[in-house]
Amino acid sequence: MDGTFLFGLGTGLSAGVVIAPLLAVAARTGRFALLRPVLVAVGATFAFFLVLDAVLESGSREPTVRTLGILTGVLSLLAAGLITWAVFEIHRGARRRAYGPAVRPLYAGLVVAAAALSVGLGGLGQARFIRAAVRAATGEEASLLPLMGVVLGLSTGVVVALALFHGLLRIRPDRWFFTGTAVLLTVVGAGVFAQGVNNLQFAHVFGGDLTPVYNVYSEVPLDTWYGTALTSTVGFSPFPTALQVTVWFLYPVPVLLLLLAPIRFGRSVGGAGAEE
C-alpha cells in the first residue's frame, strides 16, 4: 500500500484514538465548547513543528537521529502521563456520579494538552514528511500523488476517530460508558508509553538489550493498513524489545485494577447512601 497514505493514516489514528474518547466524555457531560480549543491546539501543534522543521532545515545543523528519538520519546511519555491523568479524572467523576471530569476546569486542560501532544508525537519526522509531500506537489516535476496520499490517509484516520466518538456516545448506561472509555484510554496510553520507552531505548537513554524478543513482521508488516493501524492505536510492534513488552504489560495493570475496583458506598450526613 502507498507509503504516503499509510503515513497519513497512522498520523490520523494515533491522534484520533486519544482525542475521540476524551471528547466523548466531554460531550456526554455537556462540555461541547471543548471542541474549539482542541482544534486550535491540534492546528497550532502541526504549525509549530512545520515551522520548526523549516528553521532547522535552513540552518547549518540538522537534528540527529538520536535527538529526534529523544524528542519523540519524551513527548510520548508526557502524552501517556496526561492520558493516565485524564483516565483517573474520568474515573473520579464516574464514582461520584457527578461526572466531575467534564465540569472541572482541570479536565478541559487535560483534553487540550493531550490532543496537542498526541498530534506532536510524530514531531519533526512527521513535519518533514508533510513538507516533502508539499514540495513534490509544487516542484518542477510536480506530482500531487504524495500529497493526495497524505490527505487521504489523514481523512481516513479522522473518519475512524469520528466513528469511535459516536460509537462511544451510544454506550448505555453511563456507568458502562465511563468505565469503557477509561479502559480504552488505558490501553491506548500503554501503547504510547511503550513506544516512548522504545524510542528512548534506541536513543541510548535507557539501557537494555535491543534484540527483539520476537519477530512477526512477515505476519504483520508495517507497510499494510492493519500493521499501521495496530502500531498507531495500541503501540503494537512486530519486533519489540524485552523492555518495550514489559512496559506495555506492566503499565495498564495498576491503572485497570484501580478502575475496575468495586465502588464503595458510605452514608451521607443526612443518612442517605452516598458514594465515597
TrEMBL record:
Query: Where this protein primarily resides, as one coarse class?
Result: membrane
Subcellular localization: Membrane
Database matches in InterPro entries: FTR1/Fip1/EfeU
Q: Name one GO molecular function term.
A: ferrous iron transmembrane transporter activity
Q: How does it sit in the membrane?
A: Multi-pass membrane protein
Keyword Metal-binding among record annotations: no
Q: Which domain of life is it from?
A: Bacteria
Q: Which UniProt keywords apply?
A: Membrane, Transmembrane, Transmembrane helix
The terms describing its cellular component in GO are:
high-affinity iron permease complex
> Which Pfam family, any one, appears in the UniProt record?
FTR1
Tell me yes or no: is Transcription regulation among this UniProt entry's keywords: no
Q: Hey, which family's this protein in?
A: Belongs to the oxidase-dependent Fe transporter (OFeT) (TC 9.A.10.1) family.
Protein name (database record): Iron transporter
